[in-house]
Amino acid sequence: MTGKCYLVGAGPGDPGLLTVKGRECLAKADVLIYDALSSGEFLHWVPKGCEKIYAGKRAADHAIPQEGINALIVEKAGEGKTVVRLKGGDPMIFGRGGEEAAELAEAGVPFEIVPGISSAIGGVAYAGIPVTHRDHCSQLTIFTGHEDPTKEETSLDYRKLAEADGTRVFLMGISRLAEITAALIEHGADPGTPMALTRWVTTGRQRTIEGTLATMAEIAEKEQFKAPVVAILGEVVKERAKINWFESRPLFGQRVVVTRTREQAGELSARLLELGADVVELPTIRIEPPEDPVEFSRLVADAHTYDWVVFTSPNGVERFFEAFYAAYDDARSFGKPKIAAIGPGTAKKIAEYRFATDLLPETFVAEGLVEAFSKEHIESQTVLWVKAGETRDILYEELMAQGAIVDRCIAYRSVPETEDPTGAVERIREEGMDVITFTSGSTVEGFLALGLPWPEGCKAASIGPITSAKLREHGREPEIEAAQSDLAGLVQAIVEACGRSSET
């Protein structure tokens, strides 16, 4: 039984630049074989049971040699599985996708090639440089600065490259930059030609430097510019002064750690990425089923008998309705309980199941919900509280004090996350960070359990007073606290504390 392999281009780094077809392939993958990607977001887009294999290709650091990768994709597809081979940029532009496709063809394995946006074009655009421009050029030349190391002589014709009109872009050439620029000048290129280097393109780590063909090697050495880098040579570099859109956003250059669960990290990460932050996802907790799933299912099935159903997290909403629709086919089986949510994020998740929220507090914490219920006259009314196993009991105690009859419905547990597929721990340890975000007490405890030294100068950002109290309990004063206890409030607080507007 033969499966199928998709050779998919992941684009230059920004997860939003993956093609629609590329995402469709990820959604049906049985096996994902991926390189050192700029974004861990792609790993969230595969099915839960997908086998993830890190090939680790970057420069000379290969977790699996190319021959091993070729054999692996053939082997996995030969087992009848749908294999996605995810490669940065476009797999057919200096990505050895052609070699992998040939191996699949020879083995008789069905395959498709799904092109991606190349850093040679998309990455340059994010640096504020158009590769073609009516005022400057109508020709583009792309070449590699990293050839097969076993070749005795270069296959590049530097005379033709030096004489080429228009824009010249080369990839993977930072380690040979002095050699390449000298060869171009030697073969007739103008030493004064404008030149730019941009690294970690389309991500929050992006950085661009400018010079000329004659000066760039010295500038890059001084700035300690290292791979992955795209080099742009031509008059179009002058346009960057006017259209440098990406590197002027308010959180550009700020390294921000997101500690939410792997499934939930995306929304906060997307908000921060949109503002230019360099987002590092390090989930410190993961969601597990409750210790007593039978009792949970029974309470969900009886939800229609209550006067109120209270949700205090999006996770609880999701688990509740998964169990509800496992028990019932008709949404009307929910009956007539009123629904309360602790905040807009939870209400938004409730709305995804086509239910309205009847009660939303002014402040998005348990105490705010208690205050909101005090105006509802709930004496002798029954309340089903859908919660995490480790949640504070203040809601139970205060609603009981108001005369309600409250049942705790434990929908899930938050447990420490042990996997780190993107190497976030190593990056935090080696590079430091500017902000670490915490959206619950469990994310605080999960992060501190990792035993990482707190990065020098790094700020702790808390979603609200309860999470801040947990930080203080562990001896860490939060430098940033959201005025409104939701993701929008947290992002706004980070912008106010760290954004470019706060520096002026």
Can I get a quick summary?
This protein is of the alpha/beta class.
Topology (SSEs and partners):
Elements: E1 4-9, H1 20-27, E2 31-34, E3 51-54, H2 66-78, E4 82-87, H3 97-106, E5 111-114, H4 119-126, E6 140-144, H5 158-163, E7 167-171, H6 177-186, E8 194-199, E9 207-212, H7 216-222, E10 229-233, H8 240-243, E11 255-258, H9 265-274, E12 278-281, E13 285-288, H10 293-301, E14 308-311, H11 314-327, E15 338-341, H12 344-351, H13 366-373, E16 382-388, H14 394-401, E17 405-416, H15 424-431, E18 435-438, H16 441-449, E19 459-462, H17 465-473, E20 480-481, H18 487-498
Parallel strand pairs: 1-4, 1-5, 2-3, 2-4, 6-7, 11-12, 11-18, 14-15, 14-16, 16-17, 18-19, 19-20
Antiparallel strand pairs: 7-10, 8-9, 8-10, 13-17
Written description of the protein model:
There is one protein chain. The chain is α/β, with parallel strands linked by helices. The chain has four domains: 113 residues, Cobalt-precorrin-4 Transmethylase, domain 1, CATH 3.40.1010.10; 127 residues, Tetrapyrrole methylase, C-terminal domain (Methyltransferase, Cobalt-precorrin-4 Transmethylase, Domain 2), CATH 3.30.950.10; 117 residues, Rossmann fold; 128 residues, Rossmann fold (3-Layer(aba) Sandwich), CATH 3.40.50.10090. Strands 3-2-4-1-5 form a five-stranded parallel sheet, sandwiched between helices. A five-stranded mixed sheet has the order 6-7-10-8-9, sandwiched between helices. Helix 14 links the parallel strand 16 and strand 17. Helix 2 packs across helix 3 and helix 10 crosses helix 11. The longest helix has 14 residues. The chain is elongated. The protein starts with a strand and ends in a 6-residue tail after the last helix. The model has no long low-confidence stretch (mean pLDDT 91).
